[in-house]
Each structure stands twice: as structure tokens, then as C-alpha cells.
Amino acid sequence: MIYLKNYEEVKKLIDIVDISKNYELTVNISTALSNLNDTNYANKILDNFSGSKVSNLIYGNKSVILYNLAHYKKSLDYINKALELDPNNNDYIFNKLILLKEKYPDRLEEYFDAIKSKIPNIKNLDELNNL
Global pTM? Predict the structure, then answer.
């Protein structure tokens, strides 16, 4: 496992390694960039991904980055794509619930009703408000 401590290390790795063919490395580097407050560059890396296997990891990470960039509609589109590929992923379900709760509350109840069997520790929308 590679631990990147600062922005310069991340940029150096991008220059050395062809991340466009490795989706896991692409996700990890975009996450590192996002954590280092360069969400625009992290988003660009995911946009340029050209691997033959675009995965739920790419879509899920792109959703988080777009949310952080305040592109909520696009973020919702990408979390939906991630859920199409991995409908039981608790992180994606939770991220979508939070996104709907904060930005699209009129759509929250319908989604919650559709997935509440997948989140047994939250029995109703009132409990979601405590998150």
C-alpha cells in the first residue's frame, strides 16, 4: 500500500504511473487529491479515466467529489450509476440518503421506502435526521 503524505507526492505519482488503465489506483489518487483539497483535479482525473472497466468505485468516488464541488445533480446521477452496479453497497446507499436529505428532501421519502429493508438500523426518516 502506498501512503501519500502531501500534494507533491500525489502529483509525482501521477506523472510516473499511467493511472488511466487502473481504476483502483485512479480512485485512490482522486481520493487523495480530494482529501488534499484539490477536488477539481480529482474530478478531472476521473473524467479522463479510460480503463476498459469503469466500475462502481469510479462512479461512487465521482459522486463524492461532485458533491464537494456543489454539483449536486451530477453527484446524484453518479451515485445512481454506482448503485446500478452495486445496489447493496451500504456506503452508496448512505451517501444517497444524505444527499437527498440535504439537497432533495422532496425525494427522500420515496427513496427511503424503496431501500429501508437494506438499512435495518434506521427504521424511519426521523432516525435519519439524527445522522
Answer: 0.75
On the question of pLDDT at 9 being above 70, the answer is: yes
More confident residue, 111 or 121: 111
The mean of the pLDDT values for the chain is 81
Positive or negative CA dihedral for 68, 66, 60, 1?
A: negative
* Number of DSSP helices (H) and strands (E) in the chain, helices first: 8, 0
Neighbours of 114 (CB within 10 A): 9
Q: What is the DSSP string of 2-59?
A: ----SHHHHHHHHHHS-GGG-HHHHHHHHHHHHHTT-HHHHHHHHHT---S---HHHH
Cell of 26: 485512479
Residue 67 to residue 47: CA distance in whole angstroms = 15
Task: Report the C-alpha gap between 33 and 11 in whole angstroms.
Answer: 9
The residue written with cell numbers 493511472 in the block is 19
